[in-house]
Design brief:
By secondary structure, the protein is an alpha/beta fold. The chain has two domains: 232 residues, Aspartate Aminotransferase, domain 2 (3-Layer(aba) Sandwich), CATH 3.40.640.10; 126 residues, Aspartate Aminotransferase, domain 1 (Alpha-Beta Complex), CATH 3.90.1150.10. 40% of the residues lie in helices and 12% in strands. The strands form four sheets. A four-stranded mixed beta sheet has the order 1-9-8-5, sandwiched between helices. The chain has a three-stranded parallel beta sheet with strand order 3-2-4, with helices on both faces. Strands 6-7 form a two-stranded antiparallel sheet. β2, α4 and β3 form a beta-alpha-beta unit. α2 packs parallel to α8, α3 packs parallel to α4 and α3 packs across α7. It is globular, with a radius of gyration of 21 Å. The protein starts with 17 loop residues before the first helix and ends with a helix. It binds pyridoxal-5'-phosphate. Pyridoxal-5'-phosphate binds next to α3 and α4.
Length: 377
């Protein structure tokens, strides 16, 4: 009975299937006994397995999703005086990594239904200084890539996909991270494929870029101690790679469960006929992997009130993201008085509710019933 359910947090990473727990313990032991803790055979194996899964030529393991973005920009030689077009409505790392090597993030507004950036808005933001376009596949759904790729090709501008939330998502049969020059992934624990700490991955179909990423990942030294370029320590731990491998084998099962959970929510919310009071995720691509299931509460203060009421009822939610990038203090000089209405409204009105694959159907029904009751009230 749903009335017996007391708490449904946004996610609970302790809820592990016993067989997976055993495999993770084996992986830990294997690395402990190998004495090999950074890069090495576990990382090589993970990279091969990820490249196959992501349908790309090369996958390079790195220290985090943030570092994946940073090293991708470094591999393209992007720095001071350069501009990179990206969404304003995204996680900070997208814009922060553009700014760190001295480039300028140029913020564009998102589509009001998918919250992803689109070619028309990107095109308006291009200047002779644009050195890359960085779409984000937000919440696990790919941006509308064909028009973006066509625009980029036409202007000879590389595309870096921020696929941190979209590992395993598809666009027209192609995997997220396989369409641009470079794809960047995060294995942050709350992502669909999460490590037990920080880790990330960069993908590319360009062998020369892949080689450059590998050199940059180890301070730019090639051979060791001889540096023709400046890199950093962006290496992935052997332990994280070993722990990720058995999880990668389960990813499609988890994705199917997330999609099932999302479909159940959408069915229940649609049946409740709440009209304009509750906006639901719009699925445009065939393989939305629902890193988040994000609902929308239009109207001043309604999102914050629902979040507070759900918290009181033991239901965990999160606001992704309360402040768009063009409104961040650190970018105030760059963005000036820029107005991006879709990003600003989304930051006020959206709320992620639990879609974690380990929640039971009873727990999900309890969440949906509570949301419906509160939205109706
Ligand atoms: C999580 C995330 C990142 C950063 O990944 P970390 O592994 O946490 O450094 C970058 N971009 C987006 C869109 C993300 O969601």
């Amino acid at each position: 009975m749903t009335s017996e359910i007391k708490q449904v947090p946004l996610l609970d990473l302790r809820r592990l299937a016993p067989d997976l727990k055993a495999e993770l313990e084996d992986a830990f032991k294997r690395v402990l006994e190998s004495g090999h803790f950074i890069l090495g055979p576990e990382v090589d194996a993970l990279e091969k397995e990820c490249a196959a899964y992501l349908q790309v030529g090369h996958a390079v393991g790195v220290s985090s999703g943030t570092d994946a973005l940073l090293i991708a920009l470094m591999a393209l030689g992007i720095g001071a005086g350069d501009e990179v077009v990206c969404p304003s409505y995204t996680f900070f790392a997208t814009a922060g990594t553009i700014a760190r090597p001295g480039a300028r993030p140029v913020f564009v507004d998102s589509s009001p239904d998918t919250y992803n950036i689109e070619a028309a808005a990107i095109e308006r933001a291009l200047t002779p200084r644009t050195r890359a376009i960085m779409p984000v596949h937000l919440f696990g759904q790919c941006a509308e890539m064909d028009p973006i790729l066509a625009l980029a090709k036409d202007r000879h501008i590389p595309v870096i996909e921020d696929a941190a939330q979209a590992l395993g998502s598809d666009y027209q049969g192609r995997r997220a991270g396989s369409m641009g020059e470079l794809g960047c992934f995060s294995f942050f624990p709350s992502k669909n494929l999460g490590a037990l700490g920080d880790a990330g991955l960069v993908t590319t179909n360009d062998a020369a870029l892949a080689e450059k990423l590998r050199v940059l990942r180890a301070h730019g030294g090639k051979p060791k101690y001889h540096h023709s370029i400046v890199g950093g320590n962006f290496r992935i731990d052997a332990l994280q790679a070993a722990l990720l491998r058995p999880k990668l084998r389960r990813l499609d099962g988890w994705t199917a469960q997330r999609q099932k959970n999302a479909a159940l929510y959408t069915e229940l919310f649609t049946a409740a006929a709440l009209g304009d009071r509750l906006g639901l995720p719009v699925v445009r691509q065939s393989r939305h992997i629902f890193n988040q299931y994000v609902i929308r509460l239009p109207g001043a203060g309604r999102r914050d009130k629902l979040q507070a009421d759900l918290k009181q009822r033991g239901i965990g939610t999160e606001v992704y993201y309360p402040v768009p990038m063009h409104k961040q203090k650190c970018f105030s000089e760059i963005a000036g008085t820029q107005i991006l209405p879709v990003s600003e409204a989304a930051a006020q009105e959206t709320l992620a509710i639990p879609v974690f694959p380990e929640w039971t159907e009873a727990e999900l029904r309890h969440v949906a019933a509570t949301v419906i009751e509160l939205v109706r009230a």
